[in-house]
Specification:
single chain, Aminoglycoside 3'-phosphotransferase, Chain: A, domain 2, five-stranded antiparallel β-sheet, Phosphorylase Kinase, domain 1, disordered N terminus, three-stranded antiparallel β-sheet, about 300 residues, alpha+beta
């Protein structure tokens, strides 16, 4: 028997208007504009000129609203790029089952490979951002598992990754990718103090203004532990040359780099097998991500 597909509630402007009107009446008269495309995890509406409303599409994204509300105001002053500024967490109502968020609107365009891949300056800025994030004190996060800040491991993704590799056989060099995945699993684990990581640090979560990096968004996978997941940005955005600048600036050891390549591979495969057939944009981005992991 096939498992039931995850619940995806209907989200439209009428629902959002009712939720905002009942829980944040001070903004009830603001216009709503759907942001499209908004990503696979959330439906996003711009609320007036200064706010945005984000509603999870599926159960896997329901922790983001409260996590960002708790942590981003603490992290933001330490970071060299703007991050979302949460102003409220909405509660389930009108048949919508999950918490949702209202945040300050961040101007900017989503970063693109064409514009930024070869930029050593951008590679250095991203390394600076991760360095600042990793330096923030982790002892301010009591009960990390209860706060949903613990990291998923590569081993947790092994079965799904091998299933995806079998599924894309004939599309990619799966023998080479399997060897890369095995090396990532075999790499020594992070043996230093745990640090903060973004957890979904890819091109789609970077904003630019006038061609320059301006903000990092979507902290739903924010956590504490091994920083290797954030190395995926080296394979989603950068060229081989800028990737080398990025790695040097972060001073990443071989084991962490191997795990980072593994994270780039597993997340790329997951997105490719889930969405490439229905989204040419995702197909192009994830094809690049997967093949870039092989260049190291």
């Amino acid at each position: 028997m096939r498992p039931k597909p995850p619940m995806r509630p209907k989200i439209d402007a009428d629902l959002v208007r009712r939720l905002v009107g009942s829980q944040f009446p001070q903004w009830a008269d603001q216009p709503l504009d759907l942001l499209d495309p908004a990503g696979s995890d959330h439906v996003i509406y711009r609320l007036g000129e200064r706010l945005s409303v984000r509603l999870p599409r599926h159960a896997g994204a329901i922790g983001q609203a409260r996590k960002e509300y708790a942590w981003l105001p603490r992290l933001a002053p330490q970071l060299p790029l703007a991050v979302p500024e949460p102003v409220g967490v909405g509660e389930p109502d009108f048949g919508y089952p999950w918490p949702w968020a209202v945040s300050r609107w961040l101007d900017g365009k989503v970063a693109t490979v064409d514009a930024l891949a070869d930029s050593a300056e951008v590679a250095l800025e991203l390394a600076e951002f991760l360095t600042a994030l990793q330096r923030y004190a982790t002892d301010e996060a009591p009960g990390t598992s209860g706060d949903d800040l613990t990291a998923e491991s590569l081993a947790d993704r092994d079965e799904a990754t091998r299933t995806a590799l079998a599924e894309v056989d004939g599309v990619f060099d799966t023998a080479a990718l399997t060897e890369l995945w095995d090396a990532a699993l075999d790499a020594p684990a992070w043996d230093r103090d745990p640090v903060w990581f973004h957890g979904d640090f890819h091109t789609g979560n970077l904003l630019t203004v006038d061609g320059r990096l301006s903000a990092v968004i979507d902290f739903g996978s924010l956590g504490i532990g091994d920083p290797a997941p954030d190395l995926m940005i080296a394979f989603t955005l950068m060229s081989a040359a800028s990737r080398s600048v990025f790695r040097t600036a972060l001073d990443v050891d071989d084991a962490t780099w191997a795990r980072g390549r593994g994270w780039a591979l597993t997340t790329g495969l997951n997105a490719y097998t889930s969405y490439a057939a229905v989204s040419p944009r995702i197909a192009t981005a994830t094809t690049r991500q997967i093949t870039e992991t092989l260049t190291g």
